[in-house]
Design brief:
- By secondary structure, the protein is of the alpha+beta class.
- The chain is built from 4 helices and 7 strands.
- The longest helix has 13 residues, at 103-115.
- Mean pLDDT is 87; it is low at 1-8.
């Protein structure tokens, strides 16, 4: 994987193997929220997402990044942050046919480097935690959550 060291027009280009160039962009104004909702469904990343709410969530996130193969949206991720001490990464997803090519890694690395904070937490899909260890993420012993349905969260492996 090769990163464009001097990104032009706010976009970062990544060469992934022969003949494949992926562009990372932070511009929410070019995103089709229906297309992103479909990407999340195909990835798969949890339950089906309402495109309007997905757009609101990404627009309200301090950090966000979208991966394109030409004009095709192939991946995305976002992070909430106070911009000083803490950030939390959410919703990293890549289309199945693009997984394993370094796009998810590029999204995570972009969010980590853009955060500029002391502590970055990550919300991972159950069973995917091991993937994030090579970025330096470790399981926390003190993180807790309030879920809308404890039974559903337990069934999905999100809580003990």
């Amino acid at each position: 994987m090769c990163f464009d060291i001097a990104p032009r027009d706010g976009r970062q280009r990544i060469v992934i193997g022969p003949g494949m160039e992926i562009t990372l962009s932070t511009d929410v104004d070019v995103i089709s929220w229906q297309e992103l909702a479909r990407l999340f469904e195909l990835a798969p990343l949890g339950k089906k997402r309402d495109p309007k709410m997905l757009g609101l969530a990404f627009r309200n996130s301090l950090l966000k990044v979208f991966a394109f193969d030409g004009s095709k949206l192939v991946g995305a991720g976002r992070a909430l942050s106070d911009g000083v001490w803490r950030a939390a990464i959410y919703d990293v997803a890549v289309l199945p046919e693009y997984q394993g090519k370094g796009i998810g890694s590029a999204i995570i690395q972009h969010l980590i480097h853009a955060a500029h904070v002391d502590v970055i937490m990550l919300y991972a899909a159950p069973g995917k935690e091991k993937y994030y260890e090579h970025f330096g993420f470790r399981k926390m012993k003190t993180a807790m959550a309030i879920m809308p349905s404890e039974a559903e969260a337990r069934k999905r492996g999100l809580i003990d």
